[in-house]
Design brief:
The complex is a heterodimer.
Chain A lengths: L2 H11 L4 E4 L6 H7 L5 E4 L3 H15 L3 E5 L3 H4 L2 H9 L4 E7 L15 H5 L5 E4 L6 H13 L5 E7 H4 L24 H13 L3 E5 L1 H5 L3 H8 L6 E3 L14 E4 L6 H9 L2 E5 L5 H4 L10 E6 L13 E4 L2 H15 L7 H13 L14 H12 L4 E4 L3 H9 L8 E2 L10 H11 L5 E6 L9 H7 L5 E6 L4 H10 L15 H7 L3 E5 L5 H10 L4 E6 L22
Parallel strand pairs in A: 1-2, 1-3, 3-4, 4-6, 5-6, 7-8, 7-10, 8-9, 10-11, 11-12, 13-14, 13-15, 15-16, 16-18, 17-18
Helix pairs in contact in A: 1-2, 1-7, 3-5, 3-18, 9-14, 11-14, 12-15, 16-17, 16-22
Chain B lengths: L25 E9 L4 H12 L5 E6 L5 E9 L5 H9 L4 E7 L4 E11 L5 H11 L3 E5 L4 E7 L1 H11 L4 E6 L3 E4 L6
Antiparallel strand pairs in B: 1-3, 1-4, 2-3, 5-7, 5-8, 5-9, 6-7
The chains are: A alpha/beta, B alpha+beta.
Chain lengths: ~550, ~180
């Protein structure tokens, strides 16, 4: 069969039921194979939309996402989603077309060095040089993308090779001698960790996106509640521990709660699980959690002692390690009462510093209230997909996630334009669930073309634009740190999102009254098909509290 | 520290962190990689992206056709060696990395020196060449090319010696290194 038909067989063998892509010259053979392969293909309007859709699909389902593009500009349009998937450890296989082998290196039409351009931002990549390599490369790509610390894998296929006639045999074994991720944590280290936790008087569990990736939310909750361990999650870890639980401190980091950041600052032992001590978490590194010892559980050994030195490193899969840690911890029969003073302190912080904002005295919608209204209208049960900016932080603070894979956003790379296509991918992966995109008037315009994909394919995402007419987060920083010199942040009232939604064949609404907002949102959700709600909010509201850049966590402002 | 397997609880004060310490010395990393296109680019790219400096780099075949060896030296005073090796390990084509202990390692480097050394200076230079157990591999009226093999120090010492005689060009291969005794590198 043709090599591309073998590719289809490989995709099916890997359990792929949907891919996102856009055809072009160099991947015409692949698209010919799709014609009758029986795999759903969602035609996006821009390759970046396809890449982010594959990410949203992967994050919502836990399966590997697949995105396709042609050579040259198609491939370069994938660069942002690839980098995004790398930073947030999202399992996605990207398949790009390449010019034919006799044109390689000649600056042929639509030629770009895709492998070279993407090398620093992929977990691994395959440049196909012989058609017989294709089946093995495909399977290895899926294995690498989903195992260990997940990430993006790229396969670049010259168009002539994809037309070659090859015998296809299912690949039974993978030959990856240099890739053997550690899965089981070291038992001795796990025992040490249990003992340290049992000795700690002021412990905090700090969980990140790794808990979500490892499907370890249930294990985390069981372990944390085996004693009264306070729990905080990073932006990527939200939903890894239920926000409704009394042991939940809220998110930590730059826009985390004071309680979570103060608890980290005052802790004597921090148990980091699938988290990487990012600068948005630590603030000023030299003043981060100065009194704490660190247990660091991560599947990627390179994360351990990268930013903060670990006292008890444990390399492996969070799900397995947490299950073992629970057994070890229970066997110690630690005295729960030792944490009483710590909890008294935490409760005092909680009482003094709850998340708060000044609500409007008229009908104006405060952005924080918009998130609370969305929570009420959805009973906290929606998959929330966020874009990047102030709305993202407010959604993270106020929605209150109680289950994993319900909060999808671009954390590490901070990609504006991620929200709508990722919501589309999440909706394709979870057709029976309510998927809401929270976005800003800045972010939405960076991939708004995907509304056409949503309407054409009846992908019923509900898009809520928190419209303040500004690039809000940049404006906030200019206000706070650049003497209110607002430089190039005023977006005005352009475009008319209601008309735009209608032009795309979606339903558009505009809301500006907080008194009817919950009902308005309910109405938007009840509307069949894709919906865009343009919600006018307070123009100059700041996201608080905040650790100023370069400041210590204990010096939060706002 | 509390013994594993006992119910004794571990005092936090006793815990010591494993820090990405700067070791303060030169490290020779011997890396086995799958002999595939792009393997070297990935390694070089990783060093560039993470801000690590490669001091010397040699690449060559091994006794196994499928595997190539990259020997590179990194300054442990500037870079946390454990981060360097952990990041290298993440590359799928990297099979094995050894951070070679200086005492248990034989290292060699080859250097070529093109020196003007005209007139009476030439015989002086050739005497030095003999002392360094070098070989003359090319002679013209206006230049000699001398080959020196040895450890880094020896090559640097010869460079000091040759420089006053009119050093026209110098080339060094970078170090290769092999573990002493029966142990595999």
């Amino acid at each position: 069969m043709r090599a591309v038909d073998a590719v289809m067989e490989c995709l099916k063998a890997e359990g792929v039921d949907v891919v996102f892509g856009l055809p072009g010259g160099a991947n015409l053979p692949t698209y010919d194979a799709f014609y009758d392969a029986g795999i759903r293909h969602v035609l996006v309007r821009h390759e970046a939309g396809g890449g982010h859709a594959a990410e949203g699909y992967a994050k919502a389902t836990g399966k590997v996402g697949v995105a396709l593009a042609t050579s040259g500009p198609g491939a370069t349009n994938l660069v942002t989603p690839i980098a995004d998937a790398m930073m947030d450890s999202v399992p996605v296989v990207f398949i790009t077309g390449q010019v034919r082998t006799d044109l390689l290196g000649t600056d042929g039409f639509q030629e770009a060095d895709t492998i070279g351009i993407t090398m620093p931002i992929v977990k691994h990549s395959f440049m196909i040089q012989h058609p017989l390599e294709l089946p093995r490369a495909l399977h290895e790509a899926f294995h690498i993308a989903r195992s260990g610390r997940p990430g993006p894998v790229l396969i670049d296929i010259p168009t002539d090779l994809s037309r070659a006639d090859i015998p296809y045999e299912p690949v039974a074994d993978l030959a990856l001698p240099g890739y053997q991720p550690t899965i089981d944590g070291n038992q001795k280290q796990i025992r040490q960790a249990a003992k340290a936790l049992a000795a700690a008087k002021r412990p905090v569990i700090y969980a990140g996106g790794g808990v979500i990736n490892a499907n370890a939310a249930a294990e985390l909750t069981e372990f944390a509640t085996a004693d009264h361990f306070p729990v905080t999650c990073t932006l990527m870890g939200l939903g890894g521990f239920p926000a409704s639980d009394p042991q939940w401190l809220g998110m930590l980091g730059m826009h985390g709660t004071r309680t979570a950041n103060y608890a980290m600052d005052g802790a004597d032992l921090i148990c980091a699980i699938g988290a990487r001590f990012d600068d948005r978490i630590t603030g000023k590194l030299s003043e981060f959690a100065q009194n704490a010892k660190f247990i660091h559980i991560d599947v990627d050994p390179a994360e351990i002692s990268k930013n903060v030195a670990a006292h008890i490193p444990i390399v492996g899969d969070a799900k397995r390690i947490l299950a073992k840690l629970l057994v070890e911890y229970r066997a110690l029969e630690a005295d729960t009462g030792r944490l009483d003073d710590w909890w008294k302190q935490i409760e005092a912080w909680r009482a003094e510093y709850p998340l708060r904002y000044d609500d409007s005295t008229d009908s104006e919608i405060k952005p924080q209230y918009l998130i609370q209204a969305l929570h009420e209208a959805t009973a906290g049960e929606a998959i929330i997909v966020s874009d990047v900016g102030q709305h993202q932080m407010w959604a993270a603070q106020y929605y209150g996630f109680s289950k994993p894979r319900r909060w999808i956003n671009s954390g590490g790379l901070g990609t504006m334009g991620f929200g709508l296509p990722a919501a589309m991918g999440a909706q394709v992966g979870c057709p029976d669930q309510l998927v809401c995109a929270i976005t800003g008037d800045g972010s939405i315009q960076m991939n708004i073309q995907e509304l056409a994909t949503c309407t054409q394919n009846q992908i019923p995402v509900k898009v809520f634009i928190m419209n303040n007419g500004y690039l809000g987060m940049v404006r906030q920083w200019q206000e706070l740190f650049w003497d209110r010199r607002y430089s190039q942040v005023d977006m005005g009232e352009y475009p008319d999102f209601v008309k735009l939604a209608e032009a795309y064949g979606a339903t558009g609404y505009r809301y500006s009254d907080k008194n009817t907002l919950v009902d308005d949102i309910r109405a938007a959700i009840a509307t069949p098909g894709p919906v865009v709600a343009d919600i006018r909010v307070t123009r100059e509201e700041n996201t608080y509290p905040m650790i100023a850049p370069g400041a210590a966590a204990r010096d939060m402002v706002g | 520290m509390g013994e594993p397997g006992t119910k004794e609880i571990l005092s936090l004060a006793e815990l010591e962190a494993s820090v990405g310490l700067r070791t303060g010395r030169k490290h020779v990393l011997s890396i086995l990689v799958e002999n595939r296109p792009g393997a070297l680019t990935r390694i070089a790219g990783l060093f560039a992206r993470r801000g690590f400096n490669i001091e010397t780099l040699t690449v060559g075949p091994t006794e196994d056709d499928e595997v190539a060896r990259i020997t590179l030296t990194v300054d442990g005073a500037v870079h946390p060696i454990d981060q360097v090796t952990k990041q290298l390990h993440k590359l799928v084509n990297v099979l094995k990395i050894r951070d070679l202990e200086p005492a248990g390692t034989v290292t060699r480097e080859l250097a070529l020196f093109k020196v003007a050394a005209e007139g009476s200076a030439r015989s002086e230079l050739l005497e030095f060449c003999e002392i360094f157990r070098g070989r003359v591999v090319d002679v013209t009226k206006r230049s000699v090319v001398i080959e020196i093999t040895g450890e880094e120090d020896k090559i640097e010492a010869f460079e000091q010696v040759a420089r006053p005689y009119g050093l026209i060009e110098m080339m060094r291969t970078g170090e290769i290194a092999m573990a002493r005794g029966r142990s595999e590198t």
